[in-house]
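One-letter codes give the sequence; backbone shape is given numerically. An example follows:

. . .
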Amino acid sequence: QQQQEQQQEQQQRQRKKTKKGQPANVQEEPGTVQGEVREDGGGSHSSSEGDSEGGEDELKADGQAGGKRQDKERKHLTPEQHAEQLQRTIFVGNVPAKMPLKTLKAFFSKYGEVASARLRNVPVDLKSKMPKRAAIMKNKVDDTRAPAVAYVVFKEAASVQAALAANMCELGGNHVRVDRAAPPAKAAASTAQASHQFDTSRSLFVGNLHFATLDEELIQFFTCPEALEGNSELAPAANGGLPAVEGVRIVRDPATSLNKGFGFVLFRTKAAVRAALSLNGRPLRKRPLRLTRVSVQQQQKLQVQRAAAAGANTKGPRQQQQQQPHPLVVMDVV
């Protein structure tokens, strides 16, 4: 009878593992959960919660999924430890969705020793009927719909400043956006960082985007040879040998990663903004783009909406992360 009971218990455990998407008779490695991935919609720079909370589509640098035990350890970090970790973290935007994390880690290792790297906001195939975490583990990723974002944590805070030099460098065919990681939107709303504003004098609003437009396409729109004709201020020679574009943010639906038809572009100089305005009406994917300056009033109004949304949000950390906007452009909530 004891043997029969033991066999029944073992069969029940195997069934539970199979229901979770985990093959039967597979021994888990300590601190890992097979198939666990994490999600961060909206491409926010926010990393304090992002590195301490579990999500739905995160893959770790070793190619395995993040473990519950490791997530629990991060949850128990004190505010001081969170702040210290944040000082060692960079946000990387416009990452190719199928970029191997080992490649990402190797790319940034030249700026300092990398402690960890996480790939997030991965666009999965909409036709896939599998749960998102399982789809990512099976490489059911649609890199034609949107790029991913990543967070890279260095072992030394000094490496972050060095890594900022990689902003708009090519990685896997994309010009990546590299910036310091910022606190979560909800936490920032109650601090002085809530008043942080991007430089509106160096930014443009871009409307009438095709819904399949990628960040890289918008970067190329302002830096291609056709755009440079008669616009010397957009040439690398006028921007220290770098692309005139410093950052791009296309606002996307957090559930599908499809863009909402508008975005924002940050340029390196005010002269580049004036030159870029001359491209108003030029088509991208057969749709004439609408280019206008970003007003301070717009920013302040939408910033208040963002803070109110963060304060009224009663969802858990994973759902909060999906709605956090990109600090490059504070006016994500419309």
Remarks:
- The two ends are 64 Å apart (CA to CA).
- The longest strand covers residues 259-267.
- The first helix runs from residue 2 to 19.
- The CA atoms of residues 124 and 136 lie 7 Å apart.
